Each structure stands twice: as structure tokens, then as C-alpha cells.
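tl;dr need the bound structure. longer version: we got a ligand (calcium ion) that a collaborator sent over and nobodys looked at where it sits. i said id run it. heres the input, straight from their email, havent touched it
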Amino acid sequence: AKLGARGTAVRYSPKMQDALLEKRAIEEELREALVKDELALFYQPIVDSRRGAIVAMEALVRWRHPERGIISPGVFIPVAEQTGLIVEIGAWVLRRACEDAVAWPRHVRVAVNLAPKQFHQADLIDTIATALDDSGLDPDRLELEITESTLISNTDDIQAKLAKIDALGARLSLDDFETGYSSLSYLNRFPVKKVKIDQAFSRQAIESPKTQAIISAISALAKDLNLDLVAEGVETQAQLGFMASKNIFLIQGYLYSKPRPIEELAPLLECWSDA
Ligand code: C2E
Ligand code: CA
Ligand code: CA
Ligand code: CA
């Protein structure tokens, strides 16, 4: 038993115990997975729907587990964030994504997710600069996706790191944006170039008039603030059409493609090339 909030003893329910054991097991195996090279990157295109051209690919990590098959990041990234393993995983992802992207057409950027914990590392900027230098990728082709929880902490240290990333020439995107109209305006305090509106908006775009109003407002404000907007999780032609009606043309979603392993990217890059 451990002490609860009011100093009373709370006992873990069997369910909590299971969850804890499961977390421990994942943590230990994940540590080994890094050593055994079991992590892999899948890529999902972000398409300019006006031209039908790929503008970027987002790197999404997968765990090729020898027994359990491909495990989604939804399962192990939260554990990695809690245990701090995300720092090593994140560094690996950055390095690999830069190496992979060098081989793509020049106009195709690569987008990499940065967890809030990575911003607590003193060597984050070094890690990014080294990944760029070693791979030879033009910094302008690297997009780093951060979340509001990173921005919200808004310490001098975070501000300084964001400024350094900007100075390196890499581009910052705000991922999973969902809090609506007014909070976008604080973005002009940060060197963010692009906002990815949360999947939930795409999902509700057709049915919910309220969601439609929010998307409209975000689109108008993004235009004023000179921010690129991406709609994530677009699965249907109707959702695509709605986004286009709101001047949102950068689209990521199953409608165009699921995330794919690198071996399967060539046909995508051919069919949506810029030429
Ligand atoms: P995210 O960064 O928001 O990535 C987009 C997620 O939405 C991906 O899930 C993608 O497969 C999924 N998705 C894209 N289009 C559609 C669609 O049309 N419909 C539906 N239903 N889903 C769609 P995935 O690959 O499972 O990744 C989940 C999350 O795990 C990511 O969400 C991100 O937060 C995290 N993650 C993945 N790779 C990394 C990484 O390298 N580092 C960090 N820190 N987090 C990562
Ligand atoms: Ca992302
Ligand atoms: Ca997202
Ligand atoms: Ca998300």
C-alpha cells in the first residue's frame, strides 16, 4: 500500500497492479529494443491538395516486436515519456529521419515529433544540429513538431531553445492544436511556422456546426498570423472538401495514405511528385 493524497493508505486495485506491471515490462523491453534495433520509422505524407503534391512526410515510430508484431507508438511512447527513455528514442528518430530524408526529392520536408521531455535536455540543440550535420540534410527541410504543453511551460530555457532551433534553420510546427480560436494569438511569441489542427476537428468537420465555426476561425487567424495550417486525420473526400472551403489545403490523413514503411514510399513520391 502507498499513501494517498490525504495521507490515508490506498491499495492498488488488481487493475492498477496489472497496469503497473505492464508498464514495467514495456519499459524493460523497450530499453532492449533500442539496443536490438527493433524500432522503425514509418512515414505519412502531407499533401498539398491543390497540386496533389507531397510537401512533407511525418516520421512515426513503430516497434517491430519479435513476438508481438508491430506495436503502435500509442502504446509505448507514453511509457517512454514517463521513464525518460523518450530522450534516447527521440534522438534516434531524429537521426534516422534526417538520414532517410536526404534521399527524397528536395521539396519534400521531413517532420519529426519532439516530446516535451526532450526540451528538458541540455543537449537537445546539439542532438538536432548533429543529426543535420551528419546526414547533410538542409536544415530548412527539417520540421520539428512540438505540442502546446511544451509552449505552455514557456520558461526562458524553452524560449531559448526554440530560438536556437529557429536559428539553426529548422522549422517549428505546433502539433495537435485544438484549444480553439483565442489561444492561437499567443503563437506570435514563438518562432512557429505551421499549425497542425487536431484530428478531432477533421472527424467532426462535417457533422458539427460548432467545429465548422472553430475551423473557420482558426483558418482566418492563421492567415492573419501568416501561419501554415495542416488538417490531420482527413479520411474522406467530404472532409477534404470542407477544409478546402476554409482555405486549408495541407492535408495529412488516410484519404491520401496511411503511414508506410520506407520501402513503400517510392510509389507515393512518384505519383505525387511536384514535377
Ligand atoms: P501524432 O503526432 O498526432 O501523429 C499522427 C497520428 O495520427 C499517427 O498515429 C497517424 O498514424 C494517425 N493518423 C494519421 N492520419 C489518420 C487518419 O486519417 N485517421 C486516423 N484514425 N489516424 C490517422 P501513430 O503513428 O499511431 O502515432 C500516434 C502518436 O504517437 C503521434 O501522434 C505522436 O504523438 C506519437 N509519436 C509517434 N512517433 C513519435 C516519435 O518519434 N516521437 C514522439 N515523441 N512521439 C511520437
Ligand atoms: Ca505529430
Ligand atoms: Ca498530430
Ligand atoms: Ca495526437
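gonna send this back to them w/ a short note. The radius of gyration is 20 Å.
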